[in-house]
């Protein structure tokens, strides 16, 4: 990893720090993924989150049933129609997640320097001395001295509901552990993480397959977040499964990297996945704290060079219970943007946090400020160098469009696309201005009925930094020999003007196909 690819634009005027931020229709180029749950599932809250900058709604099936999530999704659909703003749907699988089973739901107090037994016998009640778990193979996976972490579902890291255990001995299927810190397990669901140990369970579990087959198919999910991705084969298996589920063959698969195994096979996973989610909560348990940032920077850089979205989690934990983030958290969000992240994923902050809307708004504002000092010139040169020569035709067009837009100080880039590939390549070069992606629907048939494609492609770009999609009228093709895209272009320009991105006398770069030729043109707008 090169050490200088994250330099700020210099010089930064100190006086500019005191200037108030200007409101914008697009709060930030960096996207925000919000996890919807008990504190963020009403139409009103979801609408406010969308207005504040959320562009992807995450449904985490580690908890909650299909009926609960369906009700939340119906509220999301109502909110989307109400404020007329696209939102992508992400289904996050439970995966091979180990959990403590507490059927009584009473708080469990654990005292430091005492011992507790982890047992696969789920019929036994949870007590201060005995914790039933949902996995029979733990005794075969661990040895004396191994570290085990137990915390509240979507723990934030600053709670007293987390406990560290050290394996003392293994007795048949039971694991006897020494408690390292006093804690009270007071939530309804506790996850269990064994540091740097392989858990012999399938990445896509039977429960995950059932959820995808029912809820995923019913709602045409845009993105599947594959929890605990450990090998490239995990992605291939999930893609094969989705390919048999009708429209879900278009669903993108994001690999969620959560442990050492996923980190070790990262390069192969990146080749297969459509994007990467860095689950820093679990990674922070598997990795020494001083190593987490190194993996983040190196991995995000690799994603950037391949033009695949990089999503960072666990940024403003304290906003779960507080109205403002800590100084370190605010800086962490900014550094994620400067590293090149496409999106910030909010978990506990929006799912069970007290201030979901304020969290989305605050993160968006921090991202917008960081983007102002992102060194695009250096990034562009490194990306071009990484691609090498000869460039592919489409890569050449994309990089040329970005270079032209920056040279003429264009206020926006408008890209016509059917598959979404062209606009993603443009976004790969991180232009400093928004890319309005005009998705031209394509007519297709299954020999029984005609349908238009394009909605998937539009929504899936909502997780890509700098891309802002709009669906075009299907009567206007993406390719035209006579330039009939002009009317679609007018609609795109009007959309840009209405959103405040494009103003009179601005310059706009347009990227489109005319017949067999790909064209980049510069428009200078009149009054």
From TrEMBL:
Domain of life per record: Eukaryota
Record Pfam families: PK, PK_C
Recorded catalytic activity of this chain's protein: pyruvate + ATP = phosphoenolpyruvate + ADP + H(+)
Protein keywords: ATP-binding, Glycolysis, Kinase, Magnesium, Metal-binding, Nucleotide-binding, Pyruvate, Transferase
GO molecular function, one term: pyruvate kinase activity
Essential cofactor(s): K(+)
EC number(s) recorded for this UniProt protein: 2.7.1.40
Pyruvate kinase barrel domain mapped to chain residues: 30-360
N-terminal signal peptide: none
Family: Belongs to the pyruvate kinase family.
Name of this chain's protein: Pyruvate kinase
